[in-house]
């Protein structure tokens, strides 16, 4: 099935960690899509589930897993029916294979979350997908048919052009091939430099903190500070935008395979404007598309950022409740949830807005630089790596100082 059927754009391959023509063709798409739908339903109070309660979290996880299986079945059916050149038996076989692959990924994600690994399966799969894309952009020795037969990977291209005597310094910074099928941007030195710059910038920003002074009455009024991340919502807005865009692009590919009138045209238009630019050169070729994509990215990113803090307990009311339960006080402020909430709102809402804008801006700049793995991909990868680093450092600290387990309540 590698050579036929609806293809997978780069954004889907990165966000869903999918690979065309394999058992992982659906990737983690069903898992993250089900998670996004469940979060929206809970956040909008359409589902009465208390995520702070263990029983509520169990119900949420069970419902999310069931919804993921349903979405996987629908997507597998859509892909299998799109292979119109095959008979019904081959289509059934493709459907069962894709469904089995998605089910395996769902089980692996659940296994890792239950402690048989570090972090979550979704994070691991996304990181693996981004790493694969970056490695392919740098070292792929294969010729890209859509680029007139040019070698795709940057390093093999440099070696090949030096051996053939066609080396050009201009091509180091911008590799573009124009064919009857359209314009294709290939990996260049600009993208490699972009990976390094964006990674360093993200690491620096994620280390920044905003501190709120507190006191601990139960310990004699000891003064301390509660740190709030400057990137308060981390990469969540970009992740949710990527999931939404990827699903629309995927549905467009499936609708195109069936040639559904009106729906195909509508989805094709949406997918066109929701596909990230591959290079800043696109600003000259089609500035309208880039500007509309940027507008959608920022608008939805800010919307998802505020939605996320409400459903994840990071809102001012949620943080105020946590402070009161922990026995912490803010100097000069009464232990009243409403007063604490109003004070924290002065920090949290601006941080949510600023951090959402910053991560969306970094994602867009990375796309315009032609960064390997794409803007959304590199943002997710850096965030996941830092998350793994924090988890490993935490586990090592508990191993070195066992008494910490009693202090933080793990024993």
Short description:
The chain is built from 16 helices and six strands. With 411 residues, it is mainly alpha-helical.
Q: Report how far the terminal alpha carbons are from each other.
A: 52 Å
Percent of residues in helices comes to: 55-70%
Uncertain runs:
1-6
Provide the gyration radius in Å. Answer: 24 Å
Helix and strand sequence: HHHHHEEHHEEHEEHHHHHHHH
Q: How do the strands line up in the largest sheet?
A: 1-2
Judged by helices, strands and strand pairing, the structural class is mainly alpha
Quick one: overall form? globular
Q: What do we call the CATH topology of the largest domain?
A: Preprotein translocase SecY subunit
Strand content: 5-15%
Name the CATH homologous superfamily of the largest domain.
SecY subunit domain
Tally of domains: 2
Any guess at the CATH architecture of the largest domain? Orthogonal Bundle
Q: What is the average per-residue confidence, as pLDDT, rounded to a whole number?
A: 82
Reported for the largest beta sheet, the result is: 2 strands, antiparallel
Number of E strands: 6
What is the number of helical segments per DSSP (H or I, 4+ residues)? 16
CATH class of the largest domain: Mainly Alpha
């Amino acid at each position: 099935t590698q050579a036929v059927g609806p293809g997978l754009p780069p954004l889907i391959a990165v966000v869903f960690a999918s690979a065309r023509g394999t058992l992982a063709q659906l990737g983690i798409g069903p898992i993250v899509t089900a998670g996004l739908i469940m979060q929206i339903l809970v956040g909008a109070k359409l589902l009465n589930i208390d995520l702070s309660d263990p029983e509520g979290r169990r119900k949420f996880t069970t419902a999310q897993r069931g919804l993921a299986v349903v979405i996987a079945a629908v997507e597998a059916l859509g892909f299998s029916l799109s292979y119109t050149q095959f008979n019904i038996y081959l289509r059934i076989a493709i459907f069962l294979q894709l469904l089995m692959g998605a089910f395996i990924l769902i089980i692996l994600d659940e296994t890792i979350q239950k402690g048989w690994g570090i972090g979550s399966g979704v994070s691991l799969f996304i990181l693996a997908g981004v790493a694969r894309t970056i490695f392919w952009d740098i070292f792929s020795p294969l010729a890209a048919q859509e680029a007139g037969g040019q070698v795709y990977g940057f390093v093999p291209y440099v070696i090949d052009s030096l051996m053939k005597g066609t080396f050009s310094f201009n091509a180091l910074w911008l590799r573009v091939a124009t064919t009857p099928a359209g314009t294709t941007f290939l990996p260049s030195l600009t993208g490699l430099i972009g990976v390094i710059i964006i990674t360093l910038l993200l690491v620096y920003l994620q280390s920044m903190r905003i501190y709120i002074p507190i006191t601990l009455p139960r310990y004699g009024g000891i003064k301390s500070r509660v740190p709030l991340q400057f990137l308060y919502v981390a990469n969540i807005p970009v992740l949710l935008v990527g999931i939404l865009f990827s699903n629309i692009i995927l549905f467009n590919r499936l609708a195109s395979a069936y040639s559904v009138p009106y729906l195909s045209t509508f989805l094709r238009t949406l997918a066109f404007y929701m596909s990230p630019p591959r290079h800043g050169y696109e600003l000259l070729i089609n500035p309208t598309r880039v500007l509309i994509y940027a507008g959608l990215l920022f608008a939805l990113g800010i919307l998802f950022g505020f939605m996320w803090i409400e459903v994840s307990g990071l809102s001012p009311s949620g943080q105020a409740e946590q402070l009161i339960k922990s026995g912490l006080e803010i100097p000069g402020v009464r232990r009243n949830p409403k007063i604490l909430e109003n004070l924290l709102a002065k920090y949290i809402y601006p941080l949510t807005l600023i951090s959402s804008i910053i991560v969306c801006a970094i994602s867009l700049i990375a796309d315009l630089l032609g960064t390997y793995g794409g803007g959304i991909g590199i943002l997710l990868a850096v965030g996941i790596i830092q998350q793994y680093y924090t988890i490993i450092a935490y586990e090592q600290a508990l191993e070195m100082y066992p008494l910490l387990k009693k202090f933080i309540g793990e024993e």
